[in-house]
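Q: What would this chain look like folded?
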Amino acid sequence: MASQKVKEICQELILSQESLKEVCDRLQEEINKGLGKESNPEATIKCFPTYVRELPNGKEKGRFLALDLGGTNFRVLLIELGDKCTMESRIYAVPQPIMIGPGEGLFDHIADCLACFIKERSLGTELLPLGFTFSFPCKQEGLTKARLARWTKGFKCEGVEGRDVVELLKKAIAKRGDVKIKICAVLNDTTGTLMSCAWKNHNCRVGLIVGTGTNACYMEKIEKVELWDGDLEEPHQVIINTEWGAFGDNGCLDFIRTEYDNTIDRESLNPGKQLFEKMISGMYMGEVARQVIVRLVSEGLLFDGKTSDILQEKGSFFTKYISEIESDEDGDYNNCYAILEELGLNNATDADCANVRHVCECVSRRAAYLAGAGVALLLNRINEESVSVAVDGSVYRFHPHFHNLMVEQVSQLVKPGIKFDLMLSEDGSGRGAALVAAVASRSSATR
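A: My prediction, written as structure tokens:
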């Protein structure tokens, strides 16, 4: 058990039901602003229409390429859709100098890896439809046109913000002249996740990512989307990419933010931006925990007040440590001891481990409850009797209790009578990109 004093210090990380209800109300308000024509330019949650209006019907067939860029790695996939789905993929790294170098260098690197993948599989002569998952905030202007609004997740390539990323990719491919590709769709990983689950589960209406970053998308009625500039024919719906990581950038979440959140934000690459994401996602959770632990050490409540050089380093307490520490059985601290030793803390006691675990639980519970509050609000907006939520991302996938904590919170906040389930999306953003390309090919063939 954590000590009373440690519990008191961690109390501000524990959100009351009233606070979470208030988070839902404020999110509702911000989404309405994002969807409104006049309010959108000032809105922090941009609610970009994705131009994806049809869900898979399970009958999609053919071979498709998918390109999935959303962090320090990207994947190229070859996907064959038929009675079942077969998939080959390869992961390529995006080296740090490319992440912060000129934009042209990034797209040249992607085109090189794509060409390499195609050659390895002797696909040279076939014109393959490609779905491009690009998981950064983009303003879509059509199914194959998306302008980067701003970089996130440690990327800083100049000359890309405000430009159409499909055009940049096409240019890099054309410059090589040795591969034939038809880009059918550009989407982000949340839309891919939703589409991937909808292929198996036709009542899927929400896609959620809780990984390095966090974002959600959901199916909205066209009449509620003032921003809509496409046709008004059937289907009267469109997937909205909320970009909810920016929720709170206008100060509306200050009532639940702590000194730790303020420090993390101040020292980040993008101060004042993505504040909701900084309370939930894998890029920041470990650092929230580290800041709390450092404070407890400085107040003499942990490790006899003795710190280590590693613990003092920003970013040294990885988010995966939280998952590992919480994977220990109650009263068992094997993982915790091993992690503390990695951090140069060799004289920890069981009491120290209990306190460290309490910090981790407070940080992860807060993240899961906030994500759950967001999902509950989207389910309430959709207001259908039974909805599946497709979820992907390393935090959701690897944290031992994240799923259950989210379910617990969604159940508290969703309207009575709405049934829901959270479904782990296997290979969501990759297969989803191929499915968007497949649905687009199917739709254009039937028009």
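The first helix runs from residue 4 to 10.
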